[in-house]
């Protein structure tokens, strides 16, 4: 088992290879970010620049049948952002498409 | 260090994980940021009526329940007529 | 340790701390510790009309564990330096 030529042996290697690249981050509380990754640590604390945050707000309409909810999306941009690691669900490297 | 020493003997506002707001004089704290307040009161906010102050007296708050500790500007705090303030209580912390 | 160092370099800069109870507080970063507890001076709460709870608070201590985001002053963050330091730290902890 030699994966050393790809440089990926453990999960954090995937994040290391994403440094200075645009990443997708999924967070607790129905939040998602994209931004350029500049720093991280073992808690998955992150520092990102040129960040766009997307918050999914699900409104359950009173009296509506089960499963009928409207989803509102709020977006905002931030120049430089520290993200505390305990809210991070996943970090995805840039898409290679 | 982001210590609590500067707040000792000062009137402070504590915001707790469940959204409660408590004011009092910080009598002491320890390494785990457990805090003892003297002459403390809970401030209960609502949209229906002004802020209600519930006396709690000498109070120990566990450090892990604390969200924020703020130093109160006593003059500014006294200038506020709490009975005119209408606000939702602060939401609890959601991890 | 790395992130702690970054915050230390930002002492006396203006940052905006967003908490997990959706409260957003802007202020001057006065100090930070290893838990990323933060002390802010000259604070201002976003949307003070809806959140009058901290009206008379001038400076505060925020528990690191309740922070969701901190917006940093981009002009005081050297991204190249951060990336190099991150690579060095991960290389050091691997061994």
UniProtKB/TrEMBL annotation, chain A:
CDD domains: LSm3. It comes from the Eukaryota. This is LSM complex subunit LSM3. Residues 10-97 form the Sm domain. Coiled coil: none annotated. Binds specifically to the 3'-terminal U-tract of U6 snRNA. GO terms for molecular function: RNA binding. SMART domains: Sm. One of its GO terms (cellular component) is U4/U6 x U5 tri-snRNP complex. The gene is LSM3. It comes from Lentinus brumalis.
From TrEMBL, chain B:
It is found in: Nucleus. GO terms for molecular function: mRNA binding. One of its GO terms (biological process) is mRNA splicing, via spliceosome. Residues 1-75 form the Sm domain. The keyword Metal-binding does not apply. Gene3D superfamilies: 2.30.30.100. Keywords: mRNA processing, mRNA splicing, Nucleus, Ribonucleoprotein, RNA-binding, Spliceosome. CDD domains: LSm8 (cd01727). SUPFAM superfamilies: Sm-like ribonucleoproteins (SSF50182). GO terms for cellular component: precatalytic spliceosome; U4/U6 x U5 tri-snRNP complex; U6 snRNP. LSm subunits form a heteromer with a doughnut shape. Plays role in pre-mRNA splicing as component of the U4/U6-U5 tri-snRNP complex that is involved in spliceosome assembly, and as component of the precatalytic spliceosome (spliceosome B complex). The heptameric LSM2-8 complex binds specifically to the 3'-terminal U-tract of U6 snRNA. Belongs to the snRNP Sm proteins family. This is LSM2-LSM8 complex subunit LSM8. The gene is LSM8.
From TrEMBL, chain C:
It comes from the Eukaryota. Residues 2-76 form the Sm domain. It is found in: Nucleus. Its main location: nucleus. GO terms for molecular function: RNA binding. Pfam families: LSM. Coiled coil: none annotated. Keywords: mRNA processing, mRNA splicing, Nucleus, Ribonucleoprotein, RNA-binding, Spliceosome. CDD domains: LSm2. Signal peptide: none annotated. One of its GO terms (biological process) is mRNA splicing, via spliceosome. One of its GO terms (cellular component) is P-body. PANTHER family: SNRNP CORE PROTEIN FAMILY MEMBER, U6 SNRNA-ASSOCIATED SM-LIKE PROTEIN LSM2. Component of LSm protein complexes, which are involved in RNA processing and may function in a chaperone-like manner. Belongs to the snRNP Sm proteins family. This is LSM complex subunit LSm2.
């Amino acid at each position: 088992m030699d994966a050393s030529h790809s440089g990926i042996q453990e999960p954090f290697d995937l994040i290391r290879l994403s440094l200075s690249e645009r990443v997708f981050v999924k967070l607790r509380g129905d939040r998602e970010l994209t931004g350029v990754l500049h720093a991280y640590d073992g808690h998955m604390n992150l520092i990102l620049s040129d960040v766009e945050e997307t918050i999914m707000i699900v409104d359950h309409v009173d009296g509506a049948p089960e499963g009928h909810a409207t989803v509102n999306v709020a977006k905002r941009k931030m120049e430089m952002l520290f993200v505390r690691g305990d809210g991070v669900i996943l970090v995805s490297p840039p898409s290679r498409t | 260090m982001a210590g609590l020493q500067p707040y000792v003997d000062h009137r402070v506002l504590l915001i707790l994980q469940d959204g409660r707001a408590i004011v009092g004089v910080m009598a002491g704290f320890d390494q785990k940021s457990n805090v003892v307040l003297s002459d403390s009161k809970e401030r209960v906010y609502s949209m229906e009526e002004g802020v209600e102050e519930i006396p709690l007296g000498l109070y120990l708050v566990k450090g892990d329940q604390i969200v924020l500790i703020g130093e109160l500007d006593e003059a500014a705090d006294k200038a506020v007529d709490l009975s005119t303030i209408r606000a939702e209580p602060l939401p609890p912390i959601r991890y | 340790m790395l992130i702690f160092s970054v915050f230390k370099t930002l002492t006396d800069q203006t940052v905006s701390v967003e908490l997990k109870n959706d409260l957003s507080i802007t202020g001057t970063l006065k100090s930070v510790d290893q838990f990323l507890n933060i002390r802010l001076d000259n604070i201002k709460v976003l949307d003070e009309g809806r959140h009058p709870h901290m009206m008379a608070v001038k400076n505060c201590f925020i528990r690191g564990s309740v922070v969701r985001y901190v917006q940093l002053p981009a002009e005081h963050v050297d991204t190249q330096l951060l990336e190099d330091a991150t690579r060095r730290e991960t290389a050091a902890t691997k061994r």
